Amino acid sequence: MELSRTIFWDTNYNNIDWEKSSSYVISKVVMYGTIQDWYSICTFYGMDRIKNEMKKVRYLDDKSLAFLSIIFDEPKENFRCYTWKQSTPQHWTS
Questions:
Q1: 51 in a domain, yes or no?
Q2: With 39 labelled, which of 11, 23, 32, 33 sits at a CA distance of 20 to 30 A?
Q3: Would you say residue 43 lies in a domain?
Q4: Which range of residues forms the domain containing residue 60?
């Protein structure tokens, strides 16, 4: 699978195990990738796997969560990152 290398700035791209690191890869693409990266992971992992992986992650930014909620027709409350965020006190927000 070929994805934008810049979204993996914190990792050696050549050493990524696409299967073992699927949650990490999908999260990076959802938050920082291009539409072409999105199509690539949809082809490689399939929509069901992407949905299942993303429902379990602890963090997604608000825009990514809203995108996935719409794409998968799932309420935000069904995503772990949403419920985790609601139960964690936020500092310096107004």
A1: yes
A2: 11
A3: yes
A4: 5-9+17-87
Please write the tens of the pLDDT for every residue from 27-36: 999 999 999 9
Structure confidence at residue 7 as a pLDDT band (50, 70, 90): very high
The b-or-e profile of 15-31 (16+ CB within 10 A means b, else e) is ebeeeeebebbbbbbbe
* Residue reference for tokens 């291009």: 34
72 within domain boundaries = yes
Can you tell me the distance from the alpha carbon of 94 to that of 28, in angstroms, rounded to the nearest whole number?
27
| Residue 94 maps to a domain | no
Q: Does the pTM exceed 0.85?
A: no
CA distance 11 to 40: 19
